[in-house]
């Protein structure tokens, strides 16, 4: 009769799960387990043998081996496979007497098995049937690890094949204890192999076994020597060209994720091209944000969406004609005109211009109006949407000139008057049931406000010159609205700018800096070369404009825009 054999001491207490996962692998206690059963299904089959070996850092800590008497018959094919006969099992203890001892032996160790879903399924089923709590332990599957780490080194990932590959002392023979002992030796071989890919903690080992098997999984080694600090990383192809730039609070973990857990469709092409990774450490959050934006702008990597601009940005231009009007352009010139932007597309700039002109009665036609022009006005004049300088009458021309000046002043002051006029217009359109038209004006005005607000803020920060700040994670120095650092790309802002129009060059970095200032309330001003022209911290955004009647299209309007 074969009895239960338990050798070695048990760990008196177990670490918390978080501590377990963060622990280095040489400090983790592993318990390799193997079961022999009467079949493949935990619901209909029974355990007939349990073998387990516990180890930490390669040093043995104890063994567990026992036969288990099943309630039913032992199939012939199982007898032939394992060599276990019904006569041998007749004197063994039943599962209710064996399970508590095994659970005590397992304790808080990591449960390791080859094709662990099978063995763990029988253990959890036994706990449920006998009313024991399922152990809250981490499960490691050596078969899954082998598929990730030995793709081209072995013909299959059967335990016998892996034991021969690692030349284990114990040989699997379809008995619980020898198979468990061989499984543990295979695990240590896999851990040694995983260290070449930068896997040194239990959390990283668990993550590795979850990786889908893809042709470029071995590139996880690129993250092996990266620091666990904040910074910016650059993926380069075989020719050394930058193809993707990103930022991370933990560089090593973030780069590893591209080859382990990131299953986005476009990542497959990126993984195929990556040949090397460069990183730049950053001391503060804003340095990370600004440097990422700066490198994307400089290199325009094709896997960065920000770096792939399909069309030039658009600006809204208030012309310098006798009776100004709005037009859309893709560049800013030093011609005395008022520019607003940039907008993402020409259509959005055009919609914003039409809405704003309608609020002040500024003309939207393209007619060239001179002192001698005197024509019949268009329907917009009769509807009150245009002051009609084309009529040639002095009151109409003077009213249009005054409206243009009011609009200029209001844009410089943050569009407060335009907002009030818009609220009245939206209420009038809603009362007439013209909901889609009202929503169009609302969305166009919101886009305009975001653009104007961004331009005013960024221009003010740039106009302050050298600015010194104190952030929770360290001091920050800005120059002309950009980060003043000794980075590979020197800060430079080029092209003409106006109070409401920003140069495209350097805009992503300036926007990143302003966004960081907005979302970080603990930022403190230490000093500036020139006074800052906007209040800081920023005032709370104004209330939303709602349509006057209940309408399913209405989503409200927030006029305060982010940078």
Report on the structure:
- This protein is α+β, with helices and mostly antiparallel strands and 563 residues long.
- The chain has 18 helices and 17 strands.
- Strands 1, 2, 3, 4, 5, 6 and 7 form a 7-stranded mixed beta sheet that branches. A 4-stranded antiparallel beta sheet has the order 16-15-14-17, covered by helices on one side. A 3-stranded antiparallel beta sheet has the order 9-8-10, with helices on both faces.
- A hairpin with a 2-residue loop joins strand 3 (47-56) and strand 4.
- Helix 6 runs parallel beside helix 8 (176-195), helix 12 (285-299) runs antiparallel to helix 18 (507-519) and helix 13 packs across helix 17 (435-463).
- The longest helix has 29 residues, at 435-463.
In short:
This protein has 563 residues and is an alpha+beta fold. 39% of the residues lie in helices and 17% in strands. It has 18 helices and 17 strands.
What's the helix and strand layout?
Blueprint: E1 5-7, H1 17-22, E2 29-37, E3 47-56, E4 59-69, H2 76-82, H3 86-90, E5 93-94, H4 95-106, E6 110-113, H5 116-129, E7 139-141, H6 142-149, H7 159-166, H8 176-195, H9 202-209, E8 231-236, E9 242-248, H10 251-260, H11 267-273, E10 276-281, H12 285-299, E11 314-318, E12 326-329, E13 338-343, H13 346-360, H14 379-383, H15 394-412, H16 416-431, H17 435-463, E14 466-471, E15 474-479, E16 482-483, H18 507-519, E17 524-528
Parallel strand pairs: 2-6, 4-5, 6-7
Antiparallel strand pairs: 1-4, 2-3, 3-4, 8-9, 8-10, 11-12, 11-13, 14-15, 14-17, 15-16
Helix pairs in contact: 6-8, 7-8, 12-18, 13-17, 16-17
């Amino acid at each position: 009769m074969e009895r239960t054999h338990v050798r070695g001491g048990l760990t008196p207490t177990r670490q918390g799960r978080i501590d377990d996962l963060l622990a280095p692998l040489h400090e983790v206690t592993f318990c390799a387990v193997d079961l022999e059963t009467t079949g493949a299904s935990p619901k209909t089959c029974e355990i007939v043998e349990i073998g387990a070996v516990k180890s930490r850092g390669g040093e043995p800590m104890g063994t567990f081996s026992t036969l288990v008497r099943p309630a039913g018959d032992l199939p012939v094919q199982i007898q032939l496979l394992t060599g276990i006969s019904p006569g041998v099992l007749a004197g063994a203890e039943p599962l209710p007497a064996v399970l508590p001892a095994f659970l005590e032996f397992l304790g808080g160790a990591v449960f390791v098995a080859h094709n662990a879903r099978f063995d763990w399924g029988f253990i959890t089923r036994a706990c449920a049937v006998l009313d024991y709590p399922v152990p809250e332990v981490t499960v490691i599957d050596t078969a899954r690890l082998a598929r990730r780490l030995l793709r081209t080194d072995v013909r299959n990932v059967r335990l016998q094949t892996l034991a021969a590959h690692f030349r284990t002392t114990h040989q699997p023979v379809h008995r619980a204890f020898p198979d468990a002992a061989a499984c543990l030796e295979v695990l240590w071989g896999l851990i040694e192999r995983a260290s070449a890919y930068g896997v040194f903690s239990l959390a990283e080992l668990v993550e590795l076994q979850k990786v889908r098997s893809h042709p470029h999984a071995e590139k996880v080694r690129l993250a092996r020597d990266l620091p666990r600090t904040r910074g910016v990383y650059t993926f380069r192809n075989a020719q050394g060209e930058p193809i993707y730039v990103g930022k991370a609070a933990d560089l090593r973990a973030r780069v590893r994720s591209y080859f382990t857990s990131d299953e986005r469709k476009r990542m497959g092409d990126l993984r195929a091209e990556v040949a090397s990774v460069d990183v730049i450490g950053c001391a503060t959050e804003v340095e990370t944000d600004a440097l990422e934006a700066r490198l994307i702008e400089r290199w325009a990597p094709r896997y960065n969406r920000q770096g792939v601009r399909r069309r030039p940005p658009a600006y809204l231009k208030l012309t310098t004609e006798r009776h100004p009007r709005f037009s859309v352009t893709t560049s800013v010139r030093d011609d005395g005109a008022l520019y607003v932007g940039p907008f993402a597309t020409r259509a959005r700039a055009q919609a914003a211009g039409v809405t704003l002109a309608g609020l002040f009665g500024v003309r939207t036609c393209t007619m060239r109006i001179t002192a001698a022009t005197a024509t019949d006005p268009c329907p917009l004049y009769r509807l009150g949407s245009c002051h009609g300088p084309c009529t040639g009458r002095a009151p109409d021309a003077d009213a249009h000139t005054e409206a243009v000046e009011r609009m200029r002043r209001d844009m410089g002051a943050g569009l407060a008057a335009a907002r009030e006029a818009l609220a009245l217009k939206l209420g009038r359109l809603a009362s007439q049931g013209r909901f889609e038209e009202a929503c169009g004006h609302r969305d166009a005005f919101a886009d305009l406000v975001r653009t104007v607000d961004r331009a005013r803020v960024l221009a003010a920060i740039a106009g302050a010159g050298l600015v010194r700040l104190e952030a929770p994670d360290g001091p920050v120095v800005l120059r002309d609205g950009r980060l003043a650092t000794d980075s590979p790309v020197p800060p430079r802002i080029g092209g003409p700018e106006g109070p409401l129009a920003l140069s495209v060059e350097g805009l992503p970095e300036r926007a990143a800096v302003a966004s960081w200032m907005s979302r970080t309330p603990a930022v403190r001003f230490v000093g500036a070369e020139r006074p800052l022209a906007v209040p800081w911290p920023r005032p709370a955004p104004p209330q939303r404009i709602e349509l006057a009647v209940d309408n399913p299209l209405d989503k409200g309007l927030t006029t305060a825009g982010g940078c």
